[in-house]
Amino acid sequence: MKSIFIIFFAAFTIASHAQFGKDPIINLENFQKKRIHYGFFLGFNFYDFQFGYKSVAKDLIVKNTTGFNVGIIGNLRLHENIDLRFEPGLYYTERDLNYPDIEDPVDAFREVKSTYLHFPLLLKFSSKRFGNVRPYLLGGLSKSLNLGSNSDSPNDNESTVFRMTKWTSNYELGFGVDLFYEYFVFSPSIRGVFSTTNELINDNDPNSPWTSNIDAMRTRGVFINFSFH
């Protein structure tokens, strides 16, 4: 996670430095006046789980890995400083779960690989443009389809199959900056995603050591995207 932030802020610093100066030449002066424009993004993600328990127990240990994102952007200008954005994308991640109360190391470990089709609808609130730089805030709602959920599998953790719901509802909050170059706009951004859905599918055994004490399991994540328009 530390390396991701270093990459993000390094890119931000280098790109911003290129845009600042005394009386800079204004690039793409009328770009923000476009009613509709499109783009694409590449990026990284850092997914986690938040657990709620039915009774006091040791917390499950979640080991996170850095995933990747890719997608397209559709932007509709609603107001001088407000845009509506649709950013469908493919997000891949892996989370490893360790159950501290299970002694057998094979049973205590579950690998959770997820490939999400992510559909966010966001409002972007931009500040006044300063030369070739325009900071913004964004937030909204999203739905995610987990292609690796195993939700249709009749097997469960007894067969080392960890099951999750296919669809997840989320809300998202973040910030970024538009950097105007001569031929394109580069927009690094960072935002958090917070699931409002219990994603866990309980095991068939009501006394399962893997799911019986979990009241809810929800995704939390950080997205770092580099957009081009």
Helix content: under 10%
Q: What is the name of the CATH class?
A: Mainly Beta
CATH topology descriptor: Porin
- Main sheet properties: 10 strands, antiparallel
Mean pLDDT: 88
Gross morphology is elongated
Low-pLDDT stretches are none
What is the gyration radius calculated from CA atoms?
A: 21 Å
DSSP summary: helix tally: 2
Alpha-carbon distance between the two ends: 27 Å
- What count of structural domains? 1
- Strand elements, count: 10
Helix and strand composition category = mainly beta
Give the strand content. Answer: over 45%
CATH architecture descriptor text: Beta Barrel
| N-to-C SSE string, H for helix and E for strand | HEEEEEHEEEEE
Structure, described:
- With 229 residues, the protein is mainly beta.
- It has one domain: Porin.
- Helices cover 10% and strands 54% of the residues.
- Strands 1, 2, 3, 4, 5, 6, 7, 8, 9 and 10 form a 10-stranded antiparallel beta sheet that branches.
- The chain is elongated, with a radius of gyration of 21 Å.
- The two termini are 27 Å apart.
Q: What's this, in brief?
A:
The longest helix is centred in the first third of the chain and has 18 residues, at 2-19. This protein has two helices and ten strands. The chain has 229 residues and is mainly β.
Task: Set down the secondary structure blueprint.
Blueprint: H1 2-19, E1 36-53, E2 61-64, E3 66-79, E4 82-86, E5 89-98, H2 105-108, E6 109-126, E7 133-146, E8 167-180, E9 185-195, E10 214-228
Antiparallel strand pairs: 1-3, 1-10, 2-5, 3-4, 3-5, 4-6, 5-6, 6-7, 7-8, 8-9, 9-10
